[in-house]
Amino acid sequence: MQNVINALRVLEEVAARQPIGVGELARELGLPKSTVQRSLRTLNEAGWIRPAGGEVTRWQVTSKALQIARTTELGLRDAAMPVMEELRQRTGETIHLMVPEGDAVVLIERLETDKPLRIVLPLGIRLPLHASANGKAVLAHLRRPAGTLLGYTGTTITDPDALRAELDGVLARGYADNRGEWRSDIAAVAAAVLGPDGPVASLSVSTPASRMPEPLRAEYGKLVTQAARTLTESLG
Length: 236
Hints:
Elements: H1 2-17, H2 22-29, H3 33-45, E1 49-51, E2 59-61, H4 63-91, E3 94-101, E4 104-111, E5 126-128, H5 133-142, H6 160-173, E6 176-179, E7 186-195, E8 198-208, H7 214-234
Antiparallel strand pairs: 1-2, 3-4, 3-8, 4-5, 6-7, 7-8
Helix pairs in contact: 1-3, 2-3, 4-7, 5-6
């Protein structure tokens, strides 16, 4: 059983940090190199990972692993769409569904506002965990470091202690917000969709910054928290 657990941990780490070598994997996981090497060999033989090339062998996931992720993603989208539509109807704003992937969240679905002034993010865009509402909603439940805290605007949180305090606030009120921290023209509130082992996605209400004054921020925060809870329950 421990061998299976080790292999799954190695697969998760490869997916999060690919391409990655055995030495770095061993350090990140706190496992002996020999244990990691056995797991890599097993995963490679089973078709889940492959060498990324180069003089030093580094590993990345194969299309087999990605296909499983896509199948899971489709199920998440199907469950999320009615919840997202209701949230859009109640707010009149753009709704985003994002999933965690390594040090970012990735946009996999959106429902746009009917209002002429809108900010459109392309599907597949990656947003930093520490500088987006969706990212902070996820990061608060991961309870792990966010990596390098790059500054994107004047309001980006780049101090680790300030970020920890911010994440404590997210857990206390149930939702995260973004005050122009990734792009100064975007405001958002987001809440995590939780699975048995932590956050599997996040839902957000996203608007131009001028369209989210404080009273609406709090109102939208409550609505997105309710929506994320409903989606969590529907996923079982």
